[in-house]
């Protein structure tokens, strides 16, 4: 791309966003990060690698640096413009974070100089449902024949009943008198039956969601008070964990091969607190510790933000007010459905990714839950 095209685009964007200085970043840290991104764009020759890196970086961000548009966004836009313009619809969906950001930048900029706008379409394809076949109309002639036969049968039946009534002998006098004695006069007052009082119905329990949701998992901050090796299993720790209840819980974790016992003592954790208790080699475990493992096998514990205290609620995205299950029903497979979407982002934040590709970061009132270094790791 020629220097003329680049300078025309950058000059066209400076006015709407407050001039060249404001696009360099709001803080010293932002300005340093913007400069690093621009340097990378100028030296990166493989646009495919850059596009993938940007897509991962923008997974949980609106802009590349900070919370406003900067030169990092403008230079990136220029760098990937040719590749995005050549993407098919499937390609746009595959790199949905990148193309969503690209569409936002070209809309905010308005004038693109000598660059052509790119049509972005991220909607999933519409599924057409085939219309149901109409039922064939019934045969009117057959219906009429059936109805005539039924009418004749009813007529014969009525004649037989009338004949039998005429031939029946008259009842004896004694029997008539007995019947009359039993008859109740019409004017006699009728006895009123007492109405039974129905017991009030118990209120119906609120129906749960149709499919398992991440807010049904009870995630809380915990702190290890005591840790020791399992007496009958070399790979297991038995921890006493404070999760903000009257009594601490016993938790069994398979972390011996990954974390030394000295580093486990007084460790802050994020725990799943509403799994059905499970007995592990003779010791009952009443919670589960969240840990992230990358492709190389490196494991790190998910850590709550600074300032947390035992029992603090952790939640995904905007589901802060939702109430989790008291105990997850194993038959509903809530944990088994949600767990495959748990991962760490490129910024080492714990998160859940929905089937639609939307990322919800795990957080508490004090900030985001994170891991020290593993990126793109699976959380279990």
Order of helices and strands: HHHHHHHHEEEHEEEEEEEHEEEEE
Mean pLDDT: 81
Describe the oligomeric state of these chains in a short phrase: single chain
Unreliable residue runs: none
Fraction in beta strands = 15-25%
Label the structural class.
alpha+beta
Write down the overall geometry. flat
Summed up:
The protein has 10 helices and 15 strands. With 380 residues, it is α+β, with helices and mostly antiparallel strands.
Structure description:
The protein is α+β, with helices and mostly antiparallel strands and 380 residues long. The protein contains ten helices and 15 strands. It has helices at 3-14, 28-43, 47-57, 71-85, 89-94, 96-109, 140-167, 173-182, 261-264, 334-338, and strands at 219-229, 237-242, 249-253, 268-272, 278-280, 283-285, 288-289, 291-293, 299-301, 313-316, 342-344, 350-353, 359-364, 367-368, 378-379. Strand 11 and strand 12 (350-353) form a beta hairpin.
């Amino acid at each position: 791309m020629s220097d003329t095209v680049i300078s025309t685009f950058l000059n066209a964007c400076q006015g709407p966003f407050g001039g060249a200085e404001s696009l360099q970043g709001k803080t010293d840290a932002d300005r340093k990060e913007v400069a690093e991104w621009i340097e990378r764009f100028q030296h990166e020759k493989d646009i495919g690698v850059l596009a993938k890196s940007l897509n991962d970086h923008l997974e949980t961000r609106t802009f590349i640096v900070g919370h406003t548009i900067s030169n990092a966004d403008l230079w990136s836009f220029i760098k990937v413009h040719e590749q995005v313009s050549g993407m098919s619809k499937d390609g746009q969906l595959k790199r949905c974070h990148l193309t969503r950001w690209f569409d936002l930048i070209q809309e905010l900029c308005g004038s693109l100089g000598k660059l052509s706008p790119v049509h972005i379409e991220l909607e999933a394809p519409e599924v057409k449902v085939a219309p149901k076949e109409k039922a064939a109309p019934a045969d009117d002639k057959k219906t009429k024949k059936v109805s005539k036969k039924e009418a004749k049968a009813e007529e014969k039946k009525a004649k037989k009943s009338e004949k039998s009534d005429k031939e029946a002998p008259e009842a004896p006098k004694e029997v008539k008198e007995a019947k009359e004695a039993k008859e109740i006069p019409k004017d006699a007052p009728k006895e009123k039956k007492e109405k039974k009082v129905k017991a009030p119905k118990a209120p119906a329990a609120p129906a749960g969601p149709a499919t398992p949701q991440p807010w049904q998992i009870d995630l809380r901050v915990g702190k290890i008070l005591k840790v020791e090796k399992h007496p009958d299993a070399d790979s297991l720790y038995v921890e006493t964990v404070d999760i903000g209840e009257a009594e601490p819980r016993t938790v069994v974790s398979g972390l011996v091969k990954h974390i030394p016992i000295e580093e486990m003592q007084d460790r802050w954790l994020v725990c799943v607190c509403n799994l059905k208790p499970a007995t592990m080699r003779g010791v009952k475990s009443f919670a589960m510790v969240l840990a992230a493992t990358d492709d190389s096998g490196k494991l790190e514990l998910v850590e709550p933000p600074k300032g947390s205290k035992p029992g603090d609620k952790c939640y995904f995205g905007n589901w802060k007010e939702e109430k989790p299950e008291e105990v997850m029903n194993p038959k509903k497979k809530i944990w088994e459905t949600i767990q495959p979407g748990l991962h760490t982002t490129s910024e080492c934040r714990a998160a859940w990714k929905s089937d639609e590709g939307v990322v919800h970061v795990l957080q508490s009132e004090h900030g985001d839950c994170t891991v020290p270094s593993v990126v793109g790791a699976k959380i279990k």
